[in-house]
């Protein structure tokens, strides 16, 4: 998990540098907010995985309910963070979304590599 968060931070730095060069400091900071949203999503996923690992006595139906609850929590957390960033904080949409997508891309690539190793 630490490696995943570190990779998200590294990609945020690269993406932020690109936005800094093209659009200025405000856009570069907005990228970091998008990446923070993605990192929060990652941390919620890790929390759900730890919780599921500690409850081996669950039935398949209970595991499915727990998985759906985790998905709903993550979706709502991302939606609230986007609403806060784009609405209340008035951040620039393109850099926020670019930062979020970069963080999600790290998760997809990491998951794909783990599947290939197994």
In short:
The chain has four helices and no strands.
β-strand amount? under 5%
Rounded mean pLDDT is 90
Structural class assignment? mainly alpha
Number of helices: 4
Query: For the terminal residues, how far apart are their CA atoms?
Result: 17 Å
Radius of gyration: 16 Å
User: Please, how many domains?
Assistant: 1
Largest sheet: none
Strand tally:
0
The helical percent reads over 70%
Choose one word for the global shape.
Answer: flat
N to C succession of SSEs: HHHH
The parts where pLDDT drops under 50 for at least 5 residues are none
Protein architecture, described:
By secondary structure, the protein is mainly α. The chain has one domain. The mean pLDDT is 90. It has helices at 2-23, 25-53, 60-88, 93-117.
Question: What is the strand and helix layout of this fold?
Answer:
Blueprint: H1 2-23, H2 25-53, H3 60-88, H4 93-117
């Amino acid at each position: 998990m630490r490696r995943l968060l570190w990779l998200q931070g590294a990609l945020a730095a690269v993406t932020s540098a690109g936005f800094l060069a093209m659009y200025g400091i405000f856009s570069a900071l907005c990228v970091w907010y998008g990446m923070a949203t993605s990192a929060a999503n990652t941390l919620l996923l890790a929390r759900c995985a730890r919780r599921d690992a500690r409850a081996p006595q669950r039935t398949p139906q209970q595991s499915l309910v727990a998985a759906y609850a985790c998905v709903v929590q993550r979706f709502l957390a991302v939606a609230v963070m986007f609403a806060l960033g784009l609405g209340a904080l008035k951040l620039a949409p393109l850099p926020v979304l670019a930062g979020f997508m970069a963080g999600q891309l790290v998760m997809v690539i990491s998951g794909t590599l783990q599947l290939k190793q197994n």
